[in-house]
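Request: Show me your protein:
***
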Amino acid sequence: MATSHPAPPRTSDHAAWNRVLALHAHVERELTQALQSRHGLGLSEYRSLEHLDHSEDSELRMQDLAERVGLGQSSVTRLVGRLETAGFAYKDLCPSDKRGVYAVITDEGRQRYQAARATYAEVLSSALNTFTADPELGPTVQALRAPRS
């Protein structure tokens, strides 16, 4: 006979983390669908363009971009390759260290990011508003939106 293990209490760290993960998954799915259908961008591509757009000199070392987007080195290399193929970014060698490779946003990449930015903000707010009414996820959304002291 299988033994059943009681669910962790709702207030445990495990339960809280599961609520954050559930909220994250729902919101990421909505953002992904909207960015892809309206702008032809994946979520990691959008976030990469955002980081490049906000960086000094519109460029980041590949490993810094990987860290900011939350990808491994090989994944960010493929991602920047897709951005390069689309004309949104290019790779450049560091003049002082030929081993250092930078991802640099292009004017076309900046324009695509600017166009997608409103969609991202709109879908993010809409998704969070929707989940505010959810009895399980609502308190998590409220906690995330609470002003910092």
About this structure: The chain has a mean pLDDT of 90. The CA atoms of residues 133 and 139 lie 9 Å apart. The radius of gyration is 19 Å. Helices lie at 13-39, 43-54, 62-69, 73-86, 107-132, 138-145.
